[in-house]
Design a protein that fits this description.
Three copies of one chain form a homotrimer. The first copy, chain A, has 461 residues and is an all-alpha fold. Chain A is built from 18 helices and three strands. A three-stranded mixed beta sheet of chain A has the order 1-3-2. The longest helix of chain A is centred in the C-terminal third of the chain and has 31 residues.
């Protein structure tokens, strides 16, 4: 099932070890504990009257761990729906996430975290690194099953770098707000990945068509991913918002958006699916769109009412996208989007950006009170009007789309070079190409061998 | 595998969308941020000297997320033990939980959370909504496999409403304590569900008997649910107790009760099961009874010693219930209790209520000190004697049983109307009736096809 | 599949119930709430000016729950990789963990937690009990599939006791630091278990060889365990360190060590495995070695740079151990190490101890500032030089190895008595010996029956 082209004995070790050595050297040269992780500096703060409870660790670590679960279990298992790609789904997700969080620490540090020539790290940099990693994993969803781990590592190197640049432009230059990343994470990751998938278009992918689908148990494994993403999305959106009401409100808005989204998803799925039955693809994906769509506005005074409307719309859009838009993307635009990230992250991300722009434009001192300083510091300080904050948000969406599409285009061509051990069209969506599979060399037939009656007959002829 | 009667193309979307639209309208009219989630109000508190750390979010959000995991992963996967009902177990659990938590926010708000005509929401209302949802999911366990999602939504509408009423009577009118819900959640959910199952009795259910059992992998998926419920039960029982020693003590009492319960469960299972072997049904369920049984007394000064005795008893009762009582319930009382909720939630819930009444009656100022105000404010204030608090607890159990049984009776008859697309007796416990199953339309035989030697022979004849 | 020798109808209930009754009696006689879980005592602290937030519950409960997940889900599912031993892996893990955490509370209390003749319990004792349990589960990994649950309970009784003794010597007598337990948990558990496995050597174990391997889905279940262990290891190492910078820094160092370890693992796995493919055994295990290896030094000022180097080394050593050392251990030293705990916990634990000794020896007031008091109180107080702290750490490793090996030796001989219902060589690694399996008595062939073409042919002859 392998040949020399896809044999990774040299390629993968070289990629992993060279990248890790570079990272370690850069960490040695540039990375320092921040004031809250350094023994000496924190005890200076204590001496100046801080209490240990003021350490940001206690405000953010539970959220961090929830985000961490979303990155490693959520994304990893969500993609195990493919019948013969579970090892790769969880395993490559694990690999590129472990790489990307380190690389993101460096890139985000370079772009907006330098202090006296050093990158300071602590719980907030850890969350931000996980966020950037999430964006890469969204792109991974678009190319799932058609790429080698070496390609994925190369993609991560570029995508993380561009993510940090885009994030800097959106948050620091344009002064937009995007705590849960509707723009910076979801829109960016989705359109970057879709463009990569476009460039890597395989006209003969239907040779692997029979493997590009689920089986009963693989769908159950995928539901582990779905449910964890759903449950912890409130933590994701609130992980880096301001302390107090902001974290509290963001988590709650997200919770309501997701609940409404789920009802919309079930309703719409039964409408559009075959025979009035529910389709697991919708449940696994569209029910999450509500979290994406309040990624920008969740920290604002969106209200539970507003959050539910947004969630309801997001679920609706997402199911309809799976049913009607995905086939068009594939046939007309030649975008083979394995996990349907356009429906889960792309459109809901754009919706979230728009909702954020509108909500920001409507912000008033009367509603936010002194809390304005946390959510819209520039409005509080009088630097901008609310309406202009809305415009900044809208421009940020455009910039994000531009950088994502252009970045994905370039990355796609780089990944097209025939040096990374990509799978041939006939054995995409197949673990056996990169993994030693159990039972292959033993005397036992494998558990999961899918056999048609015809094949069974031949065996017994 | 479907016919027009069970086709949900219109019924399920109508139910989902109408319910969600009603909820959104009611949220728009009635629901507001509370003081801790509202930007303006919280910053007034800050201006008055509060610190961000005083925001209840930091006291309760980690517990909330643990409870959330129990509701969506714990209950969802616990019910995947059925061989061909995994999609429905996780999927319908997801649907009705997402609905019930919204509806519960409204119903609990109406009954005991109105402030100037508005329902105030924050982390505590989120936890309480999840608790109410838990009760519905317990009832779901009794009717698992024999009901359509539309029936389940209708059941949720009624059960959530009655739950809120009962909770109000028990906690506010009668002044009982029930932080972890031995009465309000477990006893209520179990007896409500059992009564529904009684009314929906199917004399010919044995036509689906071959599907009403587990296979090897489905039992492993179910263990995911069991273990998560077991681990996070300390968070469940302590999620809404008073800050400080109360949360701390409740979590610890629950931890010890569950540990002792687990040893009792393994011991008893080997005694009663076939050939001295362990029975997965016991391990998956009875090991959790210790959490149920300290749901009322866990916040009291039950001591680790007392908690262990209660846990040990709960595990024992539960295993014996599965072995000896469930068959009687089914044959004599015509209650087909799919998940055995009577053994996991019913009897241990009643045990927990009794333990709570006794522990309350024994409370003394000498033991509780000033902590009496948190646990038994009415005893502290001198309004009642400890013995009378015990009586209140006992009356609360009786009220809960009454409302649950009567509510379940009425609900059962409503659900019996032949308009909800319930499955026929021959295809209960079968996902295919409501879900598009992978592989059904493709050229591949499905992975999980269970084939007897006879069938295999025919295929190859 | 059973005979009277392995029938546990009397043995397991007796073991479970006698042990639990002893525990309950001892808890009744000896265990008390500590100052932070007792209603009266905590409210005295409140009266003296403490705030509820000072209750250690809020500093440590989220970490506790993460550790709890590692113990019950992490270890439990990691061991489900065996094709026919999933019930036992999760189920016996559950049983012995539930027992060990109770027994550990007593043993650790006797040795270093007595206050006026009573053992005081609270969140820190709960974490320490879970830690001790982790050590037992590591040993369980070495003997997985070859032992009865009664043997495992007996092993737990002894191992927990010796763990507490060793922990007392290392931490209290020798004054070493080992917050994440590189020595006390991992080294101890691994070498104890390996010695037990040595004594229980089965020369004819190859009779069960065909069951001592994974199948596709069992490897996916195992990945649930791996990923949870990986994600929550930062919480494990930081769970009992000092508040503030110490918890924060320890979590972060562990996070970086694991990330670097993962890259090393993937790189090395592709180098050494067959055909340049990745080997699930490495991914499931070696990627975790980075957490083990910073168990001692993680709380020190190891820096992210140092943590990554340690993690990289740990992953490398671990993969090479699986490839080259495990076969030698089995063939030459007659140690049948089912899960390869020597590679995941043994060697990385020793590495962690050495790293801890070196890092301690290099500690300077210039780097730690006033934080020295938290990490190295004896250096801060001037009682010892940093270099001597390093020597203490090294001696602690030697002591740990000695107690583990000797304890394992004695325990092995005790477990060799033919009274515990151990499985015969022919049916090791098989759930059916101790569990009622689904489908065995029904009319359906079991899902997971592994059938060779030959067997299929015979069936159809």
């Amino acid at each position: 099932m392998t040949n020399s082209a896809t044999n990774l004995r040299l390629k993968l070790p070289m990629a992993c070890i060279i990248l890790e050595v570079i990272i370690i050297i850069l960490f040695g040269a540039l990375v320092q504990y921040d004031d809250e992780t350094d023994a000496k500096l924190w005890h200076k703060e204590i001496a100046n009257g801080s209490s240990n409870y003021d350490n940001d660790f206690y405000y953010r670590y539970p959220s961090f761990q929830d985000v961490h679960v979303m990155i490693f279990i959520g994304f990893g298992f969500l993609m195990t729906f493919l019948q013969r790609y579970g090892f790769s789904s969880v395993g490559f997700n694990f690999l590129i996430a472990a790489f990307a969080l380190q690389w993101a620490t460096l890139m985000q540090g370079f772009v907006h975290g330098m202090h006296g020539g050093k990158i300071h790290v602590g719980i907030e940099s850890m969350i931000n690194a996980d966020f950037c990693t999430g964006s890469v994993l969204i792109s991974f969803g678009a190319v799932l099953g058609k790429t080698s781990p070496v390609q994925l590592l190369v993609m991560s190197v570029i995508e993380v770098t561009l993510f940090a640049v885009n994030e800097f432009i959106v948050l620091s230059v344009l002064g937009a707000k995007d705590a849960g990343g509707s723009m910076t994470i979801h829109t960016f990751g989705a359109y970057f990945g879709l463009m990569v998938a476009r460039v890597l278009y395989r006209p003969n992918l239907d040779k692997s068509k029979h493997k590009n689908c689920s089986v009963y148990h693989s769908d159950l494994f995928a539901m582990i991913g779905t449910i964890y993403l759903w449950m912890f999305w409130p933590s994701f959106n609130s992980a880096v918002t301001a302390h107090g009401d902001d974290q509290h409100r963001t988590a709650m808005n997200t919770y309501y958006s997701l609940a409404a989204c789920t009802l919309a998803t079930y309703g719409l799925s039964a409408v559009v699916a075959h025979d009035g039955k529910l389709d697991m693809v919708h449940i696994q994906n569209a029910a999450l769109a509500g979290g994406v769509a309040v990624g920008t506005a969740g920290e604002m005074m969106l209200t539970p009412f507003g959050s539910m409307i947004v969630g309801f719309l997001a679920g609706t859009i997402s199911v309809l996208g799976f049913k009607f838009l995905s086939p068009i993307l594939e046939q007309k635009l030649k975008i083979q989007d394995t996990c349907g990230v356009h429906n889960l992250h792309g459109m809901p991300g754009v919706l979230g950006a728009i909702v954020g722009a509108v909500t920001a434009a409507l912000a008033t001192k009367d509603v936010y009170g002194d809390g304005m300083a946390d959510v819209f510091p520039d409005i509080q300080s009088g630097d901008v009007e609310a309406s202009f904050q809305g415009i900044r948000q809208a421009i940020s969406l455009a910039v994000t789309l531009g950088i994502a599409l252009l970045g994905g285009l370039i990355t796609g061509f780089i990944l097209k070079l025939p040096i990374y051990g990509a799978p041939p069209d006939t054995i995409c969506f197949e673990d056996g190409i990169y993994w030693e599979l159990p039972g292959e060399e033993g005397s036992h037939e494998e558990l999961t061998t899918v056999r048609t009656p015809d094949e069974a007959e031949k065996l017994n002829a």
